[in-house]
Amino acid sequence: MGPQDQYLLLLLTCLLGPPVRCEEPHHQEEESQGPSPGPGHHHHWSYTDILEWDTDYPDCGGAAQSPINVDTQNTTFDPQLRPIQLSGYDLAPGETLELENNKHTVVLKLPDSLKIVGGLPHIYRAAQLHFHWGSDSSPGSEHMVNGHRFPGEIHVVHYNSEYKSIDKAITQPGGLAVLAAFIEEGPDDNAGYQHLLDHLDEVKEGGNSVEIPGFDIRGLLPQQLDRYFRYNGSLTTPPCFQSVNWTIFNQTLLLSAKQVGSVDNPEYHPDL
Ligand SMILES: *[C@@H]1O[C@H](CO)[C@@H](O)[C@H](O)[C@H]1NC(C)=O
Ligand SMILES: *[C@@H]1O[C@H](CO)[C@@H](O)[C@H](O)[C@H]1NC(C)=O
Ligand SMILES: *[C@@H]1O[C@H](CO)[C@@H](O)[C@H](O)[C@H]1NC(C)=O
Ligand SMILES: *[C@@H]1O[C@H](CO)[C@@H](O)[C@H](O)[C@H]1NC(C)=O
Ligand SMILES: [Zn+2]
Questions:
Q1: Which amino acid residue places its CA nearest to atom 10 of ligand 4?
Q2: N or C, fewer C-beta in 10 Å, the chain?
Q3: 173 near 242, Cβ under 8 Å?
Q4: Where are the chain's structural domains?
């Protein structure tokens, strides 16, 4: 095993782009406290008023705004980083999960028995996962690598187990850990993804939700969990708290053209 085999990367510099797009924590509408949104906030942000986000949500103008373009020339190998290790991800079919179309994307709520137990300074518990898909009307992945945008991106959102709940963690530095991976088109169906795609037409309209049987959530992430980019960033949508320890896997996920096409519903996409 040479250094090549253990290819962990740390993005040391905060590569700031324009405040591109942000991510909404799924419970944000219910949230009544926290440092922002400030006075005069509107809860119904949209992607068309990106440049105004930091008026209503001061954190959206922060120094560590996500997403970013990962410039691989500007990354540094960090020998201290360890492979991401997951626990409890293999859910039995008897365990039901709520799948929701929240009008921005498709969200799968996750039990907090799913954990990241290696590769980060704390143990992090899962809360939900969601997607940023591409289509004619939305650009696809949020992060970019060397200026390249991918057809889709999965985000598995976790919160630091030092906090009692995600609501407590979400405003704190290192309070959240998001595992991100890029989706690309390949020749074959991805069996892991089919568990989820099978239920998409049950949540065709914004606001719909459905209970689906548990499956191996690990199958939604790449095989290789030891090659990733790490950086301190933020939620990518309002309220943009600067609280996310990001992990962006270097290995991409391959889905067939048919599978990628099956998400081609404007309701599953950020509402540009
Ligand atoms: C990330 O944030 C932590 C805690 O604030 C800090 O110790 C660390 O140096 C930061 N890392 C980078 C790469 O900026
Ligand atoms: C790489 O990082 C340096 C130092 O932060 C920065 O000045 C430079 O613009 C970055 N290069 C690119 C291409 O982003
Ligand atoms: C994110 O994780 C890295 C370890 O990879 C750690 O050095 C850093 O302090 C963490 N950032 C925060 C804000 O906790
Ligand atoms: C993976 O890492 C290689 C080597 O740095 C880079 O060329 C490639 O663009 C990366 N791909 C992704 C999706 O991170
Ligand atoms: Zn996201």
A1: 250
A2: N
A3: yes
A4: 3-268
